[in-house]
Amino acid sequence: MSTTVTFDMTYDAPLAAVTAMLADAAFREAVCDAQHATSRSVSISGIPGTVDVTFTQQTEGIPSFAQKFVGSTVTVSQHETWSTAHAATLDIDAGVPIAAIKGSVAVAERGAQTVETVTMQVTVKVPLVGGKLESLVADMMRKALTKEYAVGKSYLAG
Predict the structure, then answer these.
(1) DSSP secondary-structure letter at 104?
(2) pLDDT tens-digit map of 115-150
(3) For residue 60, how many other CB atoms are within 10 A of its CB?
(4) Going edge to edge, which strands form the sheet with 3-11?
(5) How many domains does the chain have?
(6) By residue range, what is the domain housing residue 63?
(7) Per-residue DSSP letters for 55-97?
(8) Smallest Cα–Cα separation from 29: which of 68, 78, 74, 83?
């Protein structure tokens, strides 16, 4: 069983500007800040190439049934492998051994806009509460992408 998350971010910018943003460590650090990271590390070899972002954040506010699986903080490691300026594979280690998040990123120019589409498969392997945990993790991914989108729009607005 897994839950699919698809999230589109439409920017009023050309493809080259969006790709440059995604390859900018300052943008990735600003996204970590928007997600209230208590620590962060960003390493970018380029696009095409790899993007690695690791951050730690508090888990305050998550439901009690999930708290025992994650503790008071979680360290998330995101690895993107960009084969072209238009496509990447995505592998996220959410700091919880029971959860796997894998997916893709696609960037496409549509007229004067560029659409970044993130698609993820969230899988949690825990009997009885696995479905609830998957929904929780999927919701957390959507919230994180919403914050990234807001940072991206601000970044590109200059």
Answers:
(1) E
(2) 999 999 999 887 767 678 888 889 989 999 999 999
(3) 9
(4) 3-11, 113-124, 99-110, 87-93, 73-82, 49-58, 39-44
(5) 1
(6) 3-157
(7) EEEE-TTS-HHHHHHH-SEEEEEEEEEESSSSEEEEEEE-S-T
(8) 78
pTM of the model: 0.91
Q: Residue 138 is encoded by which pair of tokens?
A: 């999927």
Q: Which tokens belong to 107?
A: 């960037």
Q: pLDDT tens for residues 45-98?
A: 999 999 999 999 887 877 776 777 777 788 999 999 999 999 999 999 987 777
Which of 66, 47, 43 lies closest to 130, judged by CA?
A: 66
Q: Which CATH number characterizes residue 41's domain?
A: 3.30.530.20
5 Cβ neighbours under 8 A, 6+ residues apart:
103, 118, 119, 120, 122, 138, 141, 142, 145
Q: Closest Cα to residue 152, out of 5, 7, 10, 6? A: 10
3-11 and 87-93 as β-strands: parallel, antiparallel, unpaired? unpaired
Cis upstream peptide for 97 (omega within 30°): no
Q: Count other Cβ atoms within 10 Å, centred on residue 115.
A: 15
